[in-house]
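Sat 14:20. Reprocessing the chain from the morning session after the first attempt stalled halfway. Input below, unchanged.
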Amino acid sequence: MNMQKIKYSLVPMLLLATVLFINSDLFAATQPIKVVKFTEYAEMEKGKSATISWEFENTSYVNISGINKNFSAFDSVKLNPEKTEFYTITAFQGKKDSLKLNFIINVIPKKEETNQIASETPSPEPTESVRRGPADYKRKKLTASLEKMGYLNGFAKATPLTQPKQLKIMRTINLPEDKEYLIRALALDDFGNYLTGLGSQSEINWTIGRNAGTIKDNKTIDDFDEQPFTDSIHLEIGIALDNSAAASQQTEIISQIKEFIQYLAPEDNLFFSTFNQNYLQMFALSPPDKALWEFDNMTLNKPEGLNAIHKAAFKTLEKLGEGFYEDRICVLITFNSDDASIIYTANDVATIAQETESPIYVIGIGNAVDSYTLRFISEASGGKFYHLLDNEIDQLKNILVEIALSNKGYYEFTVPVNDITQSDDVLVTLGLRTKKTDVNTRANLVLKPKLQPVKYQVVANFDYKESYIKSEYENMLNSLAYILKNNPGYKIQLIGHTGNEGSDKDCFDLSVQRAENVKAYLMSQEIPEHQVKTTGWGNHKPLYYLQQSDWQQAYNRRVEIKWLDPELKPYEIGTDIYESQAEAEKALKDWDDKGYKAYFDRIIYDNKAMYEVKIWGYGTLEQAEKAAAKINAKLGKKVQVE
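Finished this time. Tokens:
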């Protein structure tokens, strides 16, 4: 698919249209930096020099790694490295914006040196090795697999003896002008081999079924395309790794990513970031050999803090927009769900991913991952959600290979949606049937992204029985203060919580003090007091009732934020409390059937873990009270506005 290259400015939902977040700083947006001309690669004979030239618009000055001086926006420089080197050139727009690009100077031996080496050295064996930089990048290619595998693990030609045993929809693309979707799928055998040439098999029957409200159909598909696997499709991949307190096994994950990189083509590019409540880009878009070198010379911080995966997705999409290729992929690896993005929501991420045609693939690890919202982000962006257990990290490389290579070779089908007007999404079933096999797979096409509930957002965690604000949360609070200062109509509520830190009274007092201390910090940044309300819940609303790990205990010792903004529907109605999650989930369905949006919250009630079902989606207190009165009168239920 030919995708138009897009340079864009990203505007978070709660900021005015003239405010951007770049490198954790906030500023009034101007014209973005634009690349007019840039030399990515130069080759020179050892002892000579190479010229690198560039031209940027909307740029104050340019800096090159390893050179202690600044250059103009339209300039060039001669360099004479002793060996092949990678350089990073950064264009700056004052202190507001920056754009990083990489270039390579490949140093080749002098001709006389080449002749001498050739006469003294035997001819090497043919190899797939590509050596263009400081890392040992040896390109690996998948061949036919004979090992049982649930992920893409090889390539084989379809024959009557090699039949597909599993289908996987890897990418969905919205074509709004045509009122249809493209779905791209893999057809794999038992060994994970991608079977090519299925279009020439006359006995194969493809079907596509749609389920959306009153529309339920299943039709045979005669017209589809096969994109043969090709390295001419160049990828730009952004990987963001959760480094919050919930994260673990970082060394093993990095090792899996490095193994995956060996399967990328030399022309592919990748960058890597980590995130907790902050977002840190570890290195810029780089070819595989330089990416491996970066990983070998990189030190990760100790996992700590909160999880702002929505913010990480937003920033990763932003960085991908700075690249050159049109085929962009965002990969998020996380141990938890979002609890600290504050101004970035799942809907924001879905919107910008759709606008930039950048699929998001989320890989959730462990039991703390709430798949509902993460799956929504994947589906709405046209990507895919994966889930691994803690003891399945060794499968990460296989998933990454499947994600990347499925964007270079696939079967493509068209799904019309012009007749679906009453549903927000449509469940699509892709089927394949032969005399020997009958397989199918499903994907959810998000036509109109539903507003996703924000259960909680945390601005700070605290040490045991303490209420002082730790330094790692100051950056987040400074950003929050900036937003409030520049948007005087915005109001928030800070809600303090504790773990098991004393008597009920002690916990309540401590929770209030924590909220008050966060308020005091914001007021020290000249935020008017009327914009910030505070309250405390003591130990009655732990995020983790059993507190099986240190990080779960820390998450219970927190201050949450709620935006009192009508557009964010902050007011809720508390309904019933249930003893089991199954009962709460049944109640959610009942409320959904009645036309209400609901979710459940785990609380402590009579010293037991219970589940409170809440109806949400009210912009003002008056709207919520009116809805509560209607429920009381019509259904005979005593409900209360929160």
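The CA atoms of residues 253 and 393 lie 7 Å apart.
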